[in-house]
Amino acid sequence: MITGEARPVAKRKGDTVIGGTVNENGVLHIKATRVGSESSLAQIVRLVESAQMAKAPVQKFADRISKFFVPLVIMLSFFTWLSWFLAGKFHGYPNSWIPKSMDSVQLALQFGISVMVIACPCALGLATPTAVMVGTGVGASQGVLIKGGQALESAHKVDCIVFDKTGTLTIGKPLVVNTQLLKNMVLQEFYELVAAAEVNSVHPLAKAIVEYAKKFREDEENPAGPEAHDFVSITGHGVKAIVRGREIIVGNKSLMVDQNIAVPLDAEDYLAEAEGLAQTGILVAIDGEVAGVLAISDPLKPGAQEVITILKSMSVRSIMVTGDNWGTANSIANEVGIDTVIAEAKPVQKAEKVKELQASGYIVAMVGDGINDSPALVAADVGMAIGAGTDIAIEAADIVLMKSNLEDVITAIDLSTFKENLHPYSFELHLGFGI
Known about the structure:
By secondary structure, this protein is of the alpha/beta class.
């Protein structure tokens, strides 16, 4: 929750654990060293709140015009009244100009009020909310929820976008993408054994394996599969169990070494290939011999590469900041086309990177989905949250991409550009009519 790391982390006696995280195996006795406002989650919430308070609203173009235009209208109205009042007092125009129902003072007052009513900048007050209403309405119909005029006004100025990785550039759900069998056996039988061993684990990768194995039993009358006995979960390594009388061990290379199981060169090559593709390699041993290698990946969202390419054509710089490890981060960045990568970043470091870019002169947008993205979402000039993300991230953002599609980042920028192009015409028409 805090780091954005996809895999659980092993903890030992004396290690520090963060409130809000989940213990997957065993029983722990934990001493609370920080409670309430001092907890890590509370500090993140405080960062979000302080950033929201510190963000000054953009000065509206209408306010800048009204600052000079309103006093000018009042002075013109006064001088109009004064001119007609003096002209009437000293008989500067024929008495026939004065209607029978009023005198010269009332006529002067009528002209003064007329100037004020006609030239009063009512349209200046209507132009901005009307443009915002249209922009937000069109955005909502496209699945882009824009929370206010400031976000709509700022989005077209963005020249640097910071992307989170997991759940933003990637789907955020591990999937089995490749299987290499090293023994002569049927793939369905292989996955029956592996899934039976993994079904009792709460590890995200185990869930991905179990879900993938279901497709091999869809046409069978009994899709439940065999049962596992003597299940043991080795934190940070994998699992072992007895299935149909056979010992099944599923995990990483370290687990195989600990269990005195030799890892063949073919398996080593498959593991290296998976790591080079930003995938997690899982070894499966059956009765003391490595029988297969699984590659599990959190794939890129459809259209991610195209979005980065379009942003480059718009002269918008793309940066990836993630709490995940450097190897996975670099591989994903290379695949999507992002040149600048910052990995193993904590929530505060993400926000600091946004502020660093702002200090360099960039107008920065942040696109994220998790609690750990919230400080950066608020610190950015425009925060965009993935609709499938956490409530805290959605609350912190200025724009919510309800369909969770990266293409909607472009949509938000286009809506802002259209609104800004429409705005000047409203002011010009009003000023021309008033004059």
